[in-house]
Each structure stands twice: as C-alpha cells, then as structure tokens.
Amino acid sequence: MYAIVDIETTGGHAGANGITEIAIFIYDGHTIVQQYETLVNPGVPIPRYIQSLTGITDEMTATAPPFEAVAPDVYDLLHDKIFVAHNVNFDYSFIQHHLLQAGYDLRTKKLCTVRLGRKIVPGLPSYSLGNLCRSLKIPVEQRHRAAGDAAATVRLFELLLKQDNKKAIATALNASSKEQFLPPNLPPEQVINLPVSPGVYYFHDQKGKVVYVGKAKNIKKRVNSHFTGNNPSRQRQEFLRNIHSITCEVTGTELMAIILESVEIKRLWPVYNRSQKNVEFKFGFYAFEDQEGYLRLVIEKKRKYTTPLHSFPLLVQGHQMLRGLIREFELCPRLCFLQKGEGKCAPIPDHTCRGACDKTEKADSYNLRVKAAINHMQHQQPSFLIVDEGREPEEQSCIMMEKGRFYGMGYIPRDTAVTEGNMVKEWLTQYPENEYILNIIHQFADSNTSRLLQFS
C-alpha cells in the first residue's frame, strides 16, 4: 500500500519552518482507497511570497489545528505504508521532523517520483511536477496546494507503475538499495559505480561546478553516508538539492586522500566545505642583499608565489629560531631586523656581533656566516619519503618531504629500489603545502617510521 503525500510549508527546511497544509492519498496500486487533507496552523507567519504561491494565508490557517493535533491521524496513515512524494526527501523530512516533535517516530520506505520519472520516462526536459505532468499530459488542478499536487502525483505514479518495464520501483524498494535516500537529481549509477578505495570525491551542481570536496578511506561508503538520515536543516536540504553528479580520484592511501582533499579545498573553494577555508597567516625567512652588499635575513608574512627559506605558523617561533642563528653564527641583530635604531648593535661589546652594522666587518666576511646560517637552518629540516600502498599491485605510493617542505606525491613502480629523493621526482606531482598538510605528514611520519626513507 502506498501513501502519496504532498505538503505546503512556510519555508524550505523543517528545522525552522512549519507545515501549512497536508494531503495524503492511500493508493493500493489501482485506486485511491482513502484520502486525507487538512490545513495546519504552522505557528509562525507565512511569508508573503509563499502566500502568493500557494494561496494559503495567515487568516486561513489561524483557525486550523496545529500539527500536534493532527499528528496521530498522520502517523496512523503513514507508518505502515510506502511513503511516495515528488522529491520525497523534502516532504519526508518535514513530516518526520514534526511527527517526532509530537512524539511519533516515523520510519518507512520511500519512493521519489522525480527519481522514478528519470528512470522510467527518461529524456524529458524537466522533472519538476508541473513540467513532468505537462510532458505526460497529466492534468493538474490547484497547483501548489497539497491536495491538487498530491492528486497529480497519484496520476503520475499510476503511469510510472504501468510503464515500469525495468522494475525500477521494485529496485528502489529493495532493502539493499540506497536509492530512496539519494538526492533527487543524482543518477543512482554514479553512486553504484563508485570505488571502495581511498580517495577524494567531488559533488557537482547542475552546471558542473564543484560544491563539495571530501576524502575517504572507502569512497563509496563515505559518499553514501552523506545521504542517510533526515537532518531537517536548511543547509542540508539545499545541499542535497544541489548535488547533480559525483566524480572522484582514487589514491593509494588515506593519507594521500587527506592531502589531496586539503589541496583541492584551497584550489576550488567549494561553497559547502567549511573546514580548511581559513586564511593562513604563515611566516617565513627571506634573504636579500642590501645596497651595501650585506646579506640580510628577515622574517615576513609568506608572500604568494614566493618560496621562503623556511616557514612557520607563529611569529614567535621565527624569532626564537632567528635568535639562535644570531648566537651560533655571530650575526648582527640589526641586520636581521631584531634591533631597531641607528649606530652599533647591542651585542658588539659582548663580541657576539663583529661589526657588520657599523661596517667594521666587511660584507664578504659577514655574508659567509649568513650563508652558513641559512645552510644550517635548511639542513636541520628533515627530508624523507613515505612509501606505501599504490592504487594497484604494480605500483607503490610515494609522498616526498624535502628539507622540511612538502614537495609532492605520486606513484612509482613497485620494483623500483629507492635510495634517495631525486630518483622519484619524475614520478611525483608537485602540490602546494599548507600548515594542515605539514602537520598531517609529520604526525603520520612520527607513528609510521617503518614507512619512511630518510635522505639528505
């Protein structure tokens, strides 16, 4: 037995909106055996544009029962039926949410006539209820009223039942089928064909633009998890409506998926990704030669399209490192911008500065120590490869850190005997780094030493 449902609401998501009208047609596959319809007092004002669309006004609902009063009847009609609606997850999310608030937990199988229409009568220009009924010559009376739209959905469902030669309805109702949970605009075969491997997946909107990037140890399982449950929030309902296609990129390991996800979020800036979209105020060491020929070390915010000698997230970390280099290599604090003002710097009496600030020490001599400090700073940073499983048996994955910097990652032939970093660069793709990626790689390296190949 099917319960074919339509509702009118005060807005697009159940969490902050009410139901203004509900219609339920109980259909046995041949005829309508019971019909229920009522206006509902939503408890909140109906926006003017919705009043214009539906014709339902605040005055009409003022004397109507609240949903709590009709909840027992609604639950009795629905709980043992197959819930059918056009864009079923919208209607279902509202009714389930409001029933739960009234003390009823609705859990039924669902059928979406949008999804079924795409499968059973493919190739139509639009699958909105009005356009679909127009294409199939199904009359619609009282458009945007619950009873009128529900009656049209009954006629549409009747036609779909008759033309379902490939048993799309039975497939959708199969206990192992996830189709009833899928967004209305997402082709089910795209989910069915997803790999069960680690990787990154992309949700695209109607125009093909990426609206969400995610990473997974098992792409298929993770993608399906996005569509389970009935979260009534506005953002989730909008998110589901905007998913029209899925693409993915398989990676050899979960670590590579995490790195690629971070790179892609920074590159694509998808509208539904929240994490990792903060601006990173990262600092770095830079060197330049001044007009007198002296090499100067300076700490600055990391500039776009530049490569610092070394980078760090906090300014205080850079100052600590720079002070250590000044002490060890007897550099001038003034020429490193740690001391302001004119004249000699403070360490000269202690003989920890040899006088480059007042030209007592010549540039050639001073610059040799600056270069030695730079070399020391860079060689203190680790260089290593993380060698792990590939996407297929014939290859192995490789992530490269070079002098504390993330160089890139890729795949190398499994029979390659790797002894040093330059051997693998031709197989690797270079990617931009960020603090999140560096932290993830170092955390993995610290707890997976057997995967590491150190090199200088």
From TrEMBL:
InterPro entries: DnaQ, GIY-YIG_endonuc, GIY-YIG_endonuc_sf, GIY-YIG_UvrC_Cho, Ribonucl_H, RNaseH-like_sf, RNaseH_sf. DNA polymerase III contains a core (composed of alpha, epsilon and theta chains) that associates with a tau subunit. This core dimerizes to form the POLIII' complex. PolIII' associates with the gamma complex (composed of gamma, delta, delta', psi and chi chains) and with the beta chain to form the complete DNA polymerase III complex. This is DNA polymerase III subunit epsilon. One of its GO terms (cellular component) is cytosol. Pfam families: GIY-YIG, RNase_T. GO terms for molecular function: 3'-5' exonuclease activity; DNA binding; DNA-directed DNA polymerase activity. DNA polymerase III is a complex, multichain enzyme responsible for most of the replicative synthesis in bacteria. The epsilon subunit contain the editing function and is a proofreading 3'-5' exonuclease. Signal peptide: none annotated. GO terms for biological process: DNA replication proofreading; nucleotide-excision repair. Residues 196-274 form the GIY-YIG domain. It comes from Chitinophaga oryziterrae.
